[in-house]
Specification:
Number of strands: 5
CATH superfamily: Cytidine Deaminase, domain 2
CATH class: Alpha Beta
Bound molecules: tetrahydrodeoxyuridine
CATH topology: Cytidine Deaminase, domain 2
Radius of gyration: 14 Å
Shape: globular
Number of domains: 1
Strand content: 25-35%
CATH architecture: 3-Layer(aba) Sandwich
Length: about 140
């Protein structure tokens, strides 16, 4: 992933916070998922008054891509924070890590945006060691 692509992913993740539907937590999250074919799928969190149907931004992006027939991913950028406040460091929840683990390899990049100009970068194996393996 080159510098321009990183910048684009960061920008899209931060922008996607605006699309979040988060009236219950007031915490808005945006995600931008880079596919190996170069396409970017975005997502936001979508809450529900019954709470458990709430879906995170990361899973929205993954499910959009997979339902379009795309299963190979290179990187994801995540941006979150209290609605109306600047993006802060907001790592993916355990459920989203589990969902990502179905499709990504250890070298999949996880960018966590702090601001469009500042982010932390991890590989998937750093944030998800000891992945569950049905066949192990
Ligand atoms: N949320 C995400 O979108 N991604 C995460 O990885 C963690 C949490 C959302 C779910 C809920 O709408 C709000 O943030 C507060 O938990």
């Amino acid at each position: 992933m080159d510098k321009d692509m990183k910048e684009l992913l960061l920008k899209k993740a931060v922008e996607m916070r605006e699309r979040a539907y988060a009236p219950y937590s007031g915490f808005t999250v945006g995600a931008a998922l880079l596919c190996k074919n170069g396409e970017i799928y975005t997502g936001c969190n979508i809450e529900n008054q019954s709470f458990t149907p709430t879906v995170c931004a990361e899973r929205t992006a993954v499910f959009k891509a997979v339902s379009d027939g795309i299963r190979e991913f290179e990187a994801i950028c995540i941006a979150g924070g209290k609605a109306g406040t600047p993006t802060r460091f907001s790592p993916p929840c355990g459920v989203c890590r589990q969902v990502l683990s179905e499709f990504v390899h250890n070298d999949f990049k996880v960018l966590i945006a702090i601001s469009p100009d500042e982010f932390k970068e991890y590989t998937f194996d750093q944030i998800m060691p000891l992945v569950f393996d049905l066949n192990a």
